[in-house]
Amino acid sequence: MTSAADHLLVAPILIPFFAGALMLLLGGDRRRGTRTALGLASALALLAVAVALLGRAARGEPGTYLLGDWPAPFGILLVHDRLSAAMLALVAVLAIPALIQAAAGWQRQGQFFQPLFQFLLMGLNGAFLTGDLFNLFVFFEVLLAASYGLLLHGSGLPRVRAGLRYIAVNLTASLMFLIGISLVYGVTGTLNMAHLSRLVPGLAEADRLLLHLGAAFLALAFLVKAGAWPLSFWLPAAYAAAAPPVAAMFAILTKVGVYAVLRLSTLLFGTGAGASAGFGSEVLAMGGLATIGMGALGVLGSRTLAHMAGNLVLVSSGTSLAVTGFALAGAGGGVLAGGLHYLVASTLACSALFLLVGPLGRDQDGVAVAPLPTSDDDPTDTEDEAAEPQGPPMPGALAALGLCFAGSALVLAGLPPLPGFLGKLAILSALLDAEGLRLPPSLAWAFMILLLLSGLAALIGLMRVGIRVFWTSEEPPPRAWLLEVGPVAGLLAVLVLLTMGAEPVQRHMQATAAALLAMPQQTEEILLAPRAEDQP
Amino acid sequence: MEAVLSAAIGLLAASGVWLLLRPRSFQVIVGLCLLSYAVNLFIFSMGGLSVGAPAIMPRGGFVNPDAYADPVPQALVLTAIVIGFATTALFLVVMIASRGLTGTDHVDGRERSP
């Protein structure tokens, strides 16, 4: 446990923490170039660590890290498995394009963009790695506090108004989170997730009710973050108001909620949970379906590209939640594997769409996000030039933007051959074969129909925007800069790579789903994690 | 003692929820504060109530755990207080910014109808 390789597990939290702290020390606007370079270096290092952890997880090596070398279950520990390694990789892959686009212009709108971005990454990585319930709350707060600052980045009335609601909703959700944690602790006397999953089957009947109550409170907090209907009305407006690179990173914030629901529900209420097995699966499935429906309607009703992307985020997280509900109710690993595949693909595509809002929105009143804010240095300066990107303009901008837009649209609509289609296909075929599903079959059919209809809605909505921007526009074609379009192209390249490597990706997701559903076997390894002190 | 504490938590939570749903930003933030007091007391009570029991056990030898208070909820509530304080301060800043930009303290940024 003492070799350098073992400390790799804590690196995804420490790298952005130190990078962000160093940026604060550097201070001032004069060092903007240094800060940008530091931010990018940190994101690249995170990607390298995530790939190494992904490789480790894929080989099936257990990963636990005891913080301060306190033995489990008393100390806080970090756990990594296939799911958290995949989410870490997703965070890093989303962070790099967002940072590059921010470097092109948006980060000049305020002083603290780069440090806040690093703290957001730290919170995200911590939430994906932690194996302790209260520690999960702490990392949630870290990422939320950073996201409050980032949402307001650039200031302006629309952002402040959206930020006010976003913060109020999330503060209330955090209080729910605390109530849930304390109820779970009051009943079981532990906060270690692996320990919890071993204690759940043996609970007394009266305690079980309290545990379910605590889990419901926790789920409420996570579902607010995941944007599940009817807790989602704040989401499209908040995401649409954020600066495009920020919104591109926010695309994964809902997935943190989905991740927490998936992780805790499979641990606490999986097949080995005795009388509690499958608790909440109906709520998750139906809530997911309602979210998909609301998201699809929102896509059809959106007037701006940013609102549409926000609603597409809802569709994506609703699908993931419904998949979690079905998997919990015994639909099998195939559904979950397809859902995870879809989650990764749709998150990447939503992020690409948010990044496109910048270059597409500048000249088009029809799709403008919000009035471009004033420069930070000079409050009287209301010229749009403040956000004009630096660097060489893009040749053939319209064609490149159009290609990127079409690519993201294809993924989100779930058309072949891109990975959105593969994920949906895997969900559908697994649902058709599902045996032992403890939910009514009509719900499964409703899910399949909604899945296809939401793809159709995404296609119609995005086509409408596409036609207006690219074909019928009277104005000169949008100007675009390499630093703005390049990141979107990069994200799409990742999606193409995922398509070409669809088979290994799907295999990884299947192994992930199988491991999640058989979690109680893994918990023993986690609880018996060796301490460094005991090692020769 | 249990009845008094539960009544206090319930009263704080009820007032907090009522204020949270009011349209003025000042009421919202006071509501959030009251709600967080209720939650903090709730966390604290989850370790069981005891009077005069220390939370830290002496080193070595046999210790009767019944004579000590559960230290974990106390640590949790400390963390929760700090985090809640910081995020509330942040919220206050945003509210002041909103007040400055809109000229009203309504949460929607505009009065309903003149």
Topology:
The complex is a heterodimer of chains A (536) and B (114).
Chain A: H1 11-26, H2 32-58, E1 63-66, E2 77-80, H3 82-104, H4 113-129, H5 133-151, H6 157-188, H7 193-199, H8 205-226, H9 235-241, H10 244-250, H11 253-269, H12 281-301, H13 305-331, H14 333-361, H15 397-413, H16 419-433, H17 441-471, H18 482-500, H19 502-517, H20 519-527
Antiparallel strand pairs in A: 1-2
Helix pairs in contact in A: 1-2, 1-4, 2-3, 2-4, 3-4, 3-10, 3-14, 3-18, 4-5, 5-6, 6-8, 6-9, 7-11, 7-20, 8-11, 9-13, 10-14, 11-13, 12-13, 12-17, 13-14, 13-17, 14-15, 14-16, 14-18, 14-19, 15-17, 15-18
Chain B: H1 2-20, H2 25-45, H3 71-102
Helix pairs in contact in B: 1-2, 2-3
Please describe what this structure looks like.
The complex is a heterodimer of chains A (536) and B (114). By secondary structure, chain A is mainly α. The model of chain A is unreliable at 363-387 (pLDDT under 50). Chain A is built from 20 helices and two strands. In chain A, helix 1 (11-26) runs antiparallel to helix 2, helix 2 packs parallel to helix 4 and helix 12 packs antiparallel against helix 13 (305-331). Chain A starts with 10 loop residues before the first helix and ends in a 9-residue tail after the last helix. With 114 residues, chain B is mainly α. Chain B has a single domain (2-50, 69-102), classed as Helix Hairpins (Orthogonal Bundle), CATH 1.10.287. Helices cover 63% and strands 0% of the residues of chain B. Chain B is built from three helices and no strands. In chain B, helix 1 runs antiparallel to helix 2 (25-45) and helix 2 packs antiparallel against helix 3. Chain B starts with a helix and ends in a 12-residue tail after the last helix. The model of chain B has no long low-confidence stretch (mean pLDDT 86). Classes of the chains: A mainly alpha (536), B mainly alpha (114).
